[in-house]
Queue: 4 jobs
Job 1
Amino acid sequence: MILKIISVSGKAVCLEYDNTKKNKSVPGKAIRLEDDYTVNSTYVNSESEGVEKSLIVIDKKLDIMNRYIIAMKNAIENISVDIQTSVKTNICANSKIRLPIRSDQDLLTLEELSKSQQGQIGLRERFSIESSESMYGFFRSIVQLLFANTVRYTWTGKSAYNAQYGTASGNASELHIVDVLIDVAQTKYHVDRSRSKTEFMRALHNFNESVASRRKRKNNDNT
């Protein structure tokens, strides 16, 4: 009589035993091997080879699936990066203006765009995704994007007393863009408008001072 049991190694084996023995197996449990039992090695080898081949096939299929999942993951990540870049760069769907502003004309075009409902929505969305732990850092980042390539803007259109940056040419307080920016920061950082405006003015002043300092160092290096 041939019996199948599961050994400690987890592989199926077959045993032959003498029918004259009184020892009987219990269904669902492994039986104890005794001296008069003999292993049918041919059956064992055949079963082992079959299991090994099956495992090889499964392993190959899992490898293919794993490569496919990795490829899909990379594709999704690339799409996500493209979407985030597009959203962060464009002001709105119908605008050709991108940040950073490249010229005074670009700034004037954006100013006109910000006065329309669609342009204002796009501008608010773009400003909102600029990340910074502090409101001041948020303003410094946006100020850099808006005014790095334009004439010098100050809050009043005039230079501050003893300012390093010299004569100002633009009045930032009259720009609708700035009004939208201050409003976005007020919501984003949960402060009142007065606090938001003060931080913008500080960020703009320090930006102008920083630009003047860099230019001064550059001029000194060239002399």
Job 2
Amino acid sequence: MPDSIASRVGAQLPPRVQATVRDAADARRRLALCTHPRYEEARQLAYTDLARANHTLAAHNPGLVHTWADPNHR
């Protein structure tokens, strides 16, 4: 989907959901950066933030839920 269309669709979301979408995207980016074992604490924090954001997103629209960025997540 082109960015301009995604922006228009996102503008129709309630402000709380817009903020949550940004939070989930930030958590996914942090997960992608925290792949080394020494970053375990930061990775766990990002998982917590992503789970919190997904809870809000699922309540609004289950299609907005972000998946885990780490393919090794169990």
Job 3
Amino acid sequence: MARNASAEERSIEVPDAAGLKRVLPNEATRFAPLDERPLTGTFGAEDLAGGTVTLPAMSQAILINPATCPGCLH
């Protein structure tokens, strides 16, 4: 997970970003981190550009490795 806890938009560097994808939810999605299947609903994913994620103030992004979590987006 990438987090921006500042009051301004920031680009967050993601160590070891190769192979990671940023999860993009639709309107019917849900993230429940303590559930056995924390991501429910329909999600898409995009590659990380240059190993950074730009986040608005006080926000976070879910990052996954599809090779180690093949069912995470279903």
Job 4
Amino acid sequence: MTSNIWQTSATLVVPLDVFGSGLVHDDQCAYRHPAIVFLANKLFIVFCEKQVDDSYTIGLSRRGRLMEYNRVEWEDQQPILKKTDTRFQNLVPIVVDEKKGEIILLCVECTAPQGGVKLIQLKSSSGETWSDPIDVHLKWPENMQESAQLCCIGPGHGLCLQSGKLAVAGYIKFSEQVQLCVLTSDISGGTWEVVPISCSPGNAVFGGHAQLVEYAKDKVCITCSLKDCKQRFNVFSSDGCKTFHNGKLKPKLIEANPGCQAGIISIPSERKKGLSLIAFTNPAHESRFEKLSLRLSEDGGETWTDPCPPLIGRSSAACSDLAYYKGKDDRGLACVYENINITEGKKKNDYCILMQLISLDEIMHKKGK
């Protein structure tokens, strides 16, 4: 694929503060691992972890309504998961019904004293109020029922496939090996089936991030990070996440060790047949978390464009997530990402969550998409 899909130059609007501030340092906590969804009533809902200390993390959400001229009116942030000595990690929202605003949220709960890890689930309509969290029942393959365990999911958003099946990417540990997997459920989210993925990245070791996208009915790509590899690893399904095949390293999708959460989303096509465009964001640098970039694929994730001319973000940036939106004025992508404030002389950097609106009409040539 060539890169002539991009305009030769484009201007992005100023990124919006969602959690924390891109300009004011916060010594008290870090905001990590963002996720975003967009509903039919023009409502963005953004999620993240508020990391207070090593044993205490709060799950947050914030709603913002898309207005004319791509303004966003934000409501106050809302703590939706909060418990002493507990870390709520990798909040993964799934839009079950876009018009009704029905959302299922999966999350990993880690209890500090016991060191236990479990998967929990909440539900909401339009993200205004949330149900109490419940433990998720996992259905394991028969040969894994006694010894396998879930390591993590996502982070980033999950999917409701065109078939109605729900899907979330993640990792499991079995026979002392970390293995890529996908969790699937019917639309109720009552029971989640663990589907191990046997595709191997060779001698590389999986990182802690896996995201997925459906680019045609039942055609799914999972992209994941690898340790000490400096490139993404993608696997594919042609039957709605029942089986996976064709695991491939993607040298063009470079990233710094040990990798981080990437944003990936399909862009609806006006054509009745064919593959949807896939949009992908990550820090396109082999040694540092910077140069947060947007790429597109027209062939189901097999090949990718060079980065879009304007880089996303102010400077250093790490984990990101994407949502497709359609407003009154145009259509585009909302990219939420970790903005990193480098703090000289301090033990750790400051992390906040910003959102960048990217007009597709502004950055792309007109190609009938």
